[in-house]
Amino acid sequence: MTLYGRQKELAALDALLGAAADGRGQSLVLRGEAGIGKSSLLAYAEGEARRRGFTVLRAVGWEAERGLAFAALHQLLRPVLDRAGTLPRPQADALAAAVGTGAAEGPDRFLVGLAVLSLLAEAADGVPVLCLVDDAQWIDDPSADALLFAARRLGVERVALLFAARGDTGFPAAGLPQSVLSRLGREDALALLAGLDVPAAVRERVLRESLGNPLALREFGASGAAAAGRPQAAGQPLPAADRVLAAYRGRVLALPERTRLMLLIAAADSRGTLRYLVAAAERLDVELADLAAAEQQGLIAVVGEFVEFRHPLIRTAAYTSAPLALRVAVHEALATGSGDPDCRARHLASAATGPDEEVAAELADCAQRALARGGPAAAAETYVEAARLTPDADPRVRRLTAAAWAAQQAGHAEQAAALAEEAYEQTADADRRAELAYVRSFWLFEKDAAQEAGALLLSHAADSRAYGREMLRAAATYAWFGGDLAALHRAADLLEQYGDAPGADARRADRAVRGLAHMAADDFARGLPLVADLLDEAAVGSPTRFQAISSASLLPDDVQLPVITEEIDFARGDGIIGRLPYLLHVLARQQLYAGDHREAARTVTEAAAIARDTGLPIRIGRLHNLLARIPAIEGDEERVRTLVTPGMNAGGNYGVTALALLDLGRGRYEDVLKRLAEARAGAARYSAALLFATADEVEAAVRLGDPARAEAPARRFAAWAAAGGQPWARAVALRNEALLAETAGGAEARGSAEEAYEEAVRLHAEPAGRPFERARTELLFGEHLRRERRRAEARTHLRTALRLFDGLAAAPWSNRTRAELRAAGEVQATARATAPDPADRLTPQELQVVRLAAEGTSSREIAARLFLSPRTVEYHLYKAYPKLGVTSRRELPAALGAVEERRGPAASARPRT
After folding, report:
1. Of 300, 333, 435, 823, which residue is the least packed, with the fewest Cβ within 10 Å?
2. pLDDT for position 908
3. Which residues share a beta bridge with 134?
């Protein structure tokens, strides 16, 4: 078939196949209205791929199957599932659970995506692979998640993924290349009609009614005179796709009655497998031979053991042109003969004409199986359908509640809140209403209504038998991030009224709430140990420990870092991909403040990639806010403003503090104070970002000659530093004290300031400090000494500051230090030149792979840890060897060891990848 007006798209498909054949895996989404030519382009790609020797895998979405978790994935991968045994065990188990061939339950849905990537890479080991997914807007959500995860992570695999989706909704594919198909222009439309021998007398009418839709042109043009006789539509004309659908209905209705029934059976059963169709046909007194007339008309094709419709609209026409009673009978026949309980439940639901408890119960069981296979989004849809068919209020509310929890588990917090609200209005049971309020609170918190979320939980927690304590702990977390001290104390008081919780972890979690309340009231001495106790003792990978990490940002670095590293290792090992963006975010914060900017950037890059692949755009914004601190230190204003996204609870304060630090480096002191004062008055006033920015506030206030504006924050920071005992924090507190003391004037004040500076410098020299803060202390002490006319002593501290600032590429701060050095009598105020770091030539991904390879980790193990394919790992090693001056894995430990030694203590203390 000639495809008119699609030269650009055909070239893109040829390029897609060529790239895959050359080991440059790519993906593409074709979008457009029904009949615009998406399926024809997929057919072209399939034919061209087979001609080039590709393995072709195909799947077609079907609206009735959207609630069947991983149905589309099973359809697509069926020909290569025999290779699944070669995958790493966690991936193989997850894939087996997803497609129903294994016993494992509840896999991380993104681990299934990684398994898909690995399986496709394995299948492409001999010949390249093309995956085609038509009507992608109708595939089930778990399949879509897995396929999109794999598509975004294609690298050097000999794999191409090609999707076709109707419109711009229903198949979100952010990050993938998209091609939106336009309608044909007049010349291309005329060329298409010329190939169909359409009489000139009707050609203009066909052009006018088809509106440039290729399928409409073919269908209306092929009917010739019939198209000319179509009545003119009154008012707004129907969309071209609707007219094509009407034309297909006409063709279906022209078929013999037995053929129409057989066609309806095929349309109603999305699997299209002959044995199931024949079994249902026997119950309805028709047979396979009755499909012959539809084959002759080109409406279907029988390929192997499957019946395939030539176009998705033909299936829709075959189904919707049949009367309701006949559709019900067909679904009942298919349900009776189905050996799959999920398919049986689906057909029974399609046959139901009103509420039916037995069918609703079967659907609820189907939803539970979807959850067990790791398909919470599909489970939510199925629970909703079960609720709609439930005649009695109590079980209907129960199923809506289950749907809300499943939607929340799938990461669809807004949908979960809407379902919870719907169920809330249908019940008066206080316990159930409390549970539903808990579900609603997640969405409130996500949309930055932390105080409202906390108040909702505090008002309902007492009514919940199962979730009361949990709700109060969540309310405390919301109150902390919402800056609500009264709500924090209220949650702590209510938990204490419950008495001791069963289990040591639960008791520690309750005490940690009181710890948060103490810290919010600036009583860090009592608060920090209670939060630290929860972090230290909770089991690895447990929800309690994950909750503790979210409350631990004010704990000492050496308390947080081992826990974060351990949790990241656990999540990688068990394939709990959904947790990694947050855990890596916390690790990046540690690396950033420790002065390891390269590692922080690498960690943010990985976290953002996983957040993108798992549908967490808000997390990407928070990561960028954190990363903005690096260009703020470097004085790159344009880069800072590009990265910063305002708002977003406490995560937004990292952006605010990055802007404040940029202002400080550029001497915009009033802007510093205004930004930080506004943030402290906001909901996220207790965030670590604001506490860590206290030193910026103090210096800006002193420079403006208005130290009183920073005295309260300085007291809070000093209390926190004393309670935590970290040397760098105590040093910064002393530096703040010295700056504020100097403003008092007089010899005594200067002496007090000098003592504070000296002690701060001594504390900074202890290991595991923060080099940027140490450099600032050395600079300020050097400035103090120069003003005291002790220029030789001043130069010692200023040289240290310059070395540290240059190491961090902190240009504004280096320039300021050089100016001070010249004023102190330094002849050549420059830092010692350093040799180029070989690691700087590696990309973040290459460095990650090289580190693991140097430890003796195999390519397959590296691939599993970093969510790549083994082929991509080998590619990164191949690119990294010449950059490091090595030729094999055996040389990596020595080469990498030399790099780490050059990069100093921060590198040697770095956690595992």
Report:
1. 823
2. 41
3. 60
Q: Are 38 and 158 in contact (CB under 8 A)?
A: no
Q: What is the pLDDT of residue 810?
A: 95
Sort residue 184 into left (φ over 0), alpha (ψ -120 to 50) or beta: beta
555: number of CA atoms within 13 Å, CB side?
25
Q: What angle do CA 147, 148, 150 make, to 5 degrees?
A: 65
Choice between 482 and 438, residue whose per-residue pLDDT is larger: 438
Rounded distance between C-alpha atoms, residue 211 and residue 863, angstroms: 50
Q: Which of 388, 368, 387 is nearest to 379 (CA)?
A: 368
Altogether, the residues listed in the chain come to a count of 913
Burial (Cβ within 10 Å: 0-12, 13-18, ≥19) of residue 626: buried
**What are the tens digits of pLDDT across the range 162-184?**
999 987 667 888 889 999 999 99
Give dist(CA 158, CA 156) in Å, integer.
Answer: 6
Cβ atoms 663, 669 nearer than 8 A: yes
Q: Exposure pattern of 657-693 as b/e (b: 16+ CB <10 Å)?
A: bbbbbbbbbeebbebbbebbeebbebbbbbbbbbbbb
Helix or strand run (H / E) with residue 233: none
Residue 142 has pLDDT above 70, yes or no: yes
Are 632 and 602 within 8 A, CB to CB?
no
Q: Which of 861, 863, 892 is CA-nearest to residue 875?
A: 863
Q: Which of 256, 287, 267, 252 is nearest to 331 (CA)?
A: 267
Of 193-207, 387-401, 427-441, 674-688, the one with minimum mean pLDDT is: 193-207
pLDDT in tens, 896-910: 776 665 555 444 445
**CA-closest candidate to residue 851, choices 804, 889, 810, 795:** 889
Residue 516: pLDDT band (50, 70, 90) is very high
> Which has the closest alpha carbon to 139: 175, 166, 101, 103?
166
DSSP 858-884: -HHHHHHHHT--HHHHHHHHHHHHHHH
Round to whole Å and give the CA distance between 434 and 523.
Answer: 32
> What span, in angstroms and rounded, lies between the C-alpha atoms of 402 and 299?
41
Encode burial over 137-160: b for 16+ CB neighbours within 10 A, e otherwise.
bbbbbbbbbbbbbbbbbbbbbbbb
Q: How far apart are CA 366 and CA 369, in angstroms?
A: 5
> Within 13 Å, how many C-alpha atoms sit on residue 368's CB side?
8
b/e string for 165-192 if b means 16 or more Cβ within 10 A? Answer: bbeeebbebeebeebebebbeeebbbeb
Rounded average pLDDT over 607-622: 85
Which residues, in sequence order, are bridge partners of residue 160?
A: 26, 130
Do the Cβ atoms of 469 and 436 come closer than 8 Å? no
Beta bridge partners of 210: none
Burial of residue 827, with CB atoms counted within 10 A of its CB: 0-12 exposed, 13-18 middle, 19 or more buried: exposed
Instruction: Tell me which residue has tokens 């808990």.
Output: 438
Cβ atoms of residues 249 and 260 within 8 Å: no
Name the amino acid, one letter, at 874. Answer: E
Evaluate whether 462 touches 490 at the Cβ level (below 8 Å). no
Burial state string for 268-306 with b = 16 or more CB within 10 A and e = fewer than 16: bbbbbebebbebbbeebebeeebbebbeeeebbebeeee
- CB-based contact 656:675 (threshold 8 Å): yes
Are the beta carbons of 631 and 661 closer than 8 angstroms? no
Beta strands in 167-228 (DSSP E): 178-180
